[in-house]
Structures are given as structure tokens and as C-alpha cells.
Amino acid sequence: MSFVRTLARPMLASSFVVAGLDKLKNADDTATQLSPLLQKAAASLPFQADEKMLARVIGGTQVGAGVLFGLGKFSRLSATLLTVISLLNTFVEWRSADISTKEGREARRNQLLKNISLSGGALLASVDTAGKPGLAWRAEHLAADARKTAADARKTTGQKLHKADKAVRRAVEHATGA
């Protein structure tokens, strides 16, 4: 892991871990914020949604993914989870923010910008391969190598067939005395 990744991952993860701990500690407040969203989604869920339990699950997931990301373990998966949770938080906080005053609207805008920035950082981290080739790159190069090998085999086989054909013709000419 490069020095920058060693330093940057815990820095980015710290905000998610603290926010997740806050969600766990204040599960009632988080459940209140989630309530309007869950009421709309409840019809499509195959189970009864307990808002407080969901708040704890989100908080625990945020803490767990943040810690794993900060440690560099399962970093792409944990960063993807953090991105999804961050976008969910952005939506929920945007909808539940107090906009009755100028200060409330400014706070809402600042919180939105912070959440979008964190989501962007987590999204970038979710596609970071830590300097190693990703699956798409490896698959593309494996296919290119297979095509090259097949082309080389066709060329070599063609050359050998041409030589064998020449040898057979010479043998036939020599045998027939022509």
C-alpha cells in the first residue's frame, strides 16, 4: 500500500466511523429521520421495517465498513458500502433539514456539499485498485494474449504445413524421377 493510501484511507474513513457511532448512539433520532423514507419504501419490502433496528444496522455497517476501509481490508467493497450509505445519508439529511431560516438553508447546503464530497471520495476509493490491475484490465489483456497466441499458432502451423508440402513434393519428384 502506498504512503498516500496509508494516510488517506483512515482520514476518509474517520468521518464515516464517527457518523456511524453517532447513529448507533442516537438510533431514535436516526429512525425519526428515516421514517418518511421507510414509509414510502415499506410497500416494496418483503418484511416489516423496524426503523430503529434499521438505524442501528446502517450505523453498524457504517462503522464496520469505515474501520475495514481505514485498515485497508476489503477496501473496494467497504468503500462501495460507504458510498451507498453516504448517498442515503445525503438524501435523508437533505429532506429532514430545517430550512425555515437563512441559517438553516445555509447549514443544509453546507451539509449537502460535505456529504456529496464524502460520497465522491468513497466512490473514487471504491474503484481504486491500489496500483494493481483491475478485473476488466486483466480480462482485456488475457483476451488479447489469447488472440496473439492463436495468431502465432496459425502462423507457425501454416509455415510447418508449407514446409511439409514442399518436402512431400520434393519426395514425389525424386521418387518419380521427374
Explain what this protein looks like in three dimensions.
By secondary structure, the protein is mainly α. The protein has two domains: 3-126, no CATH class; 134-178. It is built from six helices and no strands. It has helices at residues 3-25, 27-41, 51-71, 75-96, 102-126, 135-176. Helix 1 packs antiparallel against helix 3 and helix 4 (75-96) packs antiparallel against helix 5. The longest helix is centred in the C-terminal third of the chain and has 42 residues, at 135-176. The N and C termini lie far apart (73 Å). The model has no long low-confidence stretch (mean pLDDT 84).
What is the total tally of β strands? 0
The CA-CA distance between the termini, in Å, is: 73 Å
Quote the average pLDDT.
Answer: 84
How many DSSP helices?
Answer: 6
Uncertain segments: none
